[in-house]
Design goal:
This protein is an alpha+beta fold and 183 residues long. The protein contains four helices and eight strands, in the order ββααβββαβαββ. The chain has one domain: Aminopeptidase (3-Layer(aba) Sandwich), CATH 3.40.630. Strand 3 and strand 4 form a beta hairpin.
Length: 183
């Protein structure tokens, strides 16, 4: 047990994947569950290989083909939940839920060429819908406290601040009631 605090109430509804939409730049985008195919993996590697180092947080995503592939081996494992934002045959973004004790940690990455177009919001909502359908009960994340746009987005989606003691802020959300009936 980590002693993390989670909201008592279950968050609102989230869409099931796939989620097709037109982003703010007029591009056709679709949020889909990661299918494990070589094509999806290579498109994801390509996205991370061209990822702007200035957009890295807490050392992720790593740089360099070999380190990217090693990192993806971990977060694309069977116990993790992953969704990708596709724009044609390119991956525009990736979000993952990684199991951690009694909850799942959320991480999201949107390629710099696709930022500020509404993809991140849809990516998180699609991931949370996918997680809810898979029975995930609790989700948490960390965000740099000065990243006001991200903090605002997470709050809008339903995350609540659970720890703000350090330079990073921890936020959490309850997706489903627990197996014992507790919210």
């Amino acid at each position: 047990m980590t002693g993390r605090r989670f909201p008592e109430t279950v968050a609102g509804a989230f869409p099931d994947v796939p989620v097709p939409f037109v982003d703010a730049a007029g591009r056709d985008v679709e949020i889909r569950a990661y299918d494990g195919s070589d094509g999806a993996r290579e498109a994801l590697v390509a996205m991370y290989d061209s990822f702007d180092p200035a957009d890295r947080a807490q050392g992720i995503p790593p740089g360099g083909d070999e380190r990217i592939r090693e990192w993806l081996e971990t977060i694309l494992a069977a116990d993790c939940l992953n969704v990708l934002a596709w724009c044609g045959d390119e991956v525009a973004g990736h979000a993952t839920l990684v199991p951690d004790d009694e909850a799942y940690e959320l991480a999201i990455f949107v390629h710099q060429d696709y930022q500020e177009a509404g993809i991140g919001t849809r990516l998180i909502k699609g991931l949370l819908g996918y997680g809810r359908a898979a029975g995930v009960e609790k989700v948490w994340l960390t965000v740099e406290r000065w990243n006001h746009a991200a903090v605002s987005l997470y709050k809008k989606i339903g995350f609540e601040t659970s720890d703000a003691e350090s330079f990073e802020m921890e936020m959490s959300l309850r997706l489903n009631e627990s197996a014992d009936g507790e919210a």
